[in-house]
Amino acid sequence: MTEATADPGLNRFGRLVERDDKQDFPFYNDQPVAISGSSWVAVVVACAAGFAVLASVGFTDERAELIPRVLFLAMPAAVFVWVARGHWRVLFKSVRASDLGAMVAFWIINLAVSALAALLVSGGDFNHLSANTATDDLADAGAAQIIAFYVGTGLQLLGEEVFTILPFLGLLWFLTQRGASRKKSILIAWLATAIWFGAAHLPTYDWNFAQAILVIGAARLVLTLAFIRTKNLWVSFGAHVLNDWTTFTLALIAATR
């Protein structure tokens, strides 16, 4: 597997943001393979199409719900594997001990940032915020349904990383192709894909724009920062799983009391 190695002359962020490990983002600078503008458009369209399936096809049975969750991940992943011509694995590096530590660190940072954003948006009255109803009635559904829920949400969370990181890389390519600096391109792509991710959560939170864009968008900034720092999608995925599965599990425990 060929990894993207940073040019020593690149204008990189400091060690608090990017590891000093000579790794760079793949594809935006035609390494390890060039992806054309039309191919990036196809990837982003596939991300949107996968989300449309997830948002429009719903089942009350968690086992049946696996279908749209798998498609949400599989549709953009299939297009990306095709356009990356065998180099898609560069997004999924081996997970080292430092990566496990990064997952936990970014999970904790995400909790703090999300709590602060929720406090600011709600003005201290959390009744203004909509609840995530993902685990409603799940406690009484039986073990098979609960297992299917965790498997399905795991696939969906990986899909959410793909849904965010692929457009991030596409924007990075687009901006640098038009002469923007690496730092400026990263910042714009980071913010734009956080808004994209937050907007996708509007139906989940009853079209509460402040909650979806500001609170969920802030959480996404942290998760994407995990990728920016490590260049490893497994790390942002791991932090995402820790965040959501902990929330789901606490809700299930509370519902059984």
UniProtKB/TrEMBL annotation:
InterPro entries referenced in this protein's UniProt entry, alphabetically: Rce1/LyrA-like_dom (IPR003675)
Pfam families per the UniProt record, alphabetical: Rce1-like
Domain CAAX prenyl protease 2/Lysostaphin resistance protein A-like: 148-245
Transmembrane segments: 40-60, 66-88, 100-121, 186-203, 209-228
Keywords, comma-separated and alphabetical: Membrane, Transmembrane, Transmembrane helix
GO molecular function annotations of the record: endopeptidase activity
Domain of life from the UniProt record: Bacteria
One GO term (biological process): CAAX-box protein maturation
UniProt name for this protein: CAAX prenyl protease 2/Lysostaphin resistance protein A-like domain-containing protein
Organism of derivation: Nocardioides thalensis
